[in-house]
Design a protein that fits this description.
The protein has eleven helices and six strands. It is of the alpha/beta class. It has a single domain, classed as Rossmann fold. Helix 2 (37-47) runs antiparallel to helix 3.
Length: 270
């Protein structure tokens, strides 16, 4: 390909938009919020599967050329040499990405699940008159039903969590790095240095005091203003949770990536 493709994935509300906002300060890099590429990838792969009556004419080599073309053409108007495509589904595609884009790497943003649920609940309460796409614009329920919904296997958090575990315990962990939200907001320079080393790019001087990113129109259409807001300076904001204590405690042991004993394949965790 004419450019290098990498991926940002992991858990929602865990710093992926902030990371993209920082990376795009480098004029050689293209990065942004979650986009449609992963869905298009899956749809095209499905259409080239056995459910297509002409699939006997479609070889694996042809599938790979078509999917190569998807990346090449989608980013044809991007002048940057290095592309970071963001989507939580990429953690489920590591075996395919190894074959299709052998130089690619996946950076997964992670955070304690309790704080993710807390962050989503804060958005709900902040936008009390704007039903959110996170819950299919449905109204009603309580903080418990909303939490149960997002952490379910098909919920916005539950799906991403299971996808992350698939990647973390899979066979392609040499191309996977986890970035903890706390590390990113407390020491962004160290995190960025580790990422540059991981992807084999020369260092760049990032400005963590003047970060810019906006997706206001998307957030408004999603019924969740503020969903992709990035503060202009990177910092850790300490605050108590707004979740009931029993609900917050439900997730206290879900950070499976912490500790050497829980990391049998030696995944890089920053």
């Amino acid at each position: 390909m004419s450019r290098t493709i990498h991926f940002i994935s992991g858990l929602p509300r865990s710093g992926s938009t902030l990371l993209a906002a920082l990376l795009r300060q480098n004029p050689r890099f293209h990065a942004g919020m979650s986009g449609p590429m992963a869905g298009m990838f899956a749809a095209m792969l499905g259409e080239m599967s056995g459910r297509n009556e002409f699939s006997m004419f479609i070889t694996d080599a042809l599938r790979q050329r078509v999917l190569h073309g998807l990346f090449e053409n989608y980013y044809a108007d991007s002048p940057q040499d290095v592309i970071f495509d963001t989507n939580r589904a990429w953690c489920t595609r590591l075996p395919a990405l190894r074959q299709l884009l052998p130089d690619s790497r996946v950076i997964a943003c992670v955070r304690h699940v309790g704080w993710i649920v807390d962050s989503i609940e804060r958005l709900v309460r902040k936008n009390a008159f704007s039903p959110s796409s996170i819950f299919n614009y449905a109204l009603g329920g309580t903080v418990y039903t909303r939490a149960n919904g997002v952490v379910a296997n098909d919920g916005v958090v539950g799906y991403a969590y299971d996808a992350l575990k698939e990647a973390f315990y899979g066979e392609d962990t040499d191309r996977l790095m986890l970035v903890q939200y706390e590390s990113l907001v407390k020491d962004p320079h160290t995190v960025l240095k580790a990422i540059y080393d991981f992807i084999g790019e020369p260092p760049f001087a990032h400005d963590v005091e003047h970060v810019a990113y906006s997706a206001d129109e998307f957030d408004q259409r999603a019924g969740t203003p503020g969903l992709h807001v990035v503060r202009p300076n990177v910092s850790m904001v300490e605050r108590p949770t707004i979740l009931p204590p029993d609900l917050f405690r439900r997730f206290e042991h879900d950070a499976f990536w912490q500790g050497a004993a829980a990391n049998p394949r030696g995944v890089r965790v920053i």
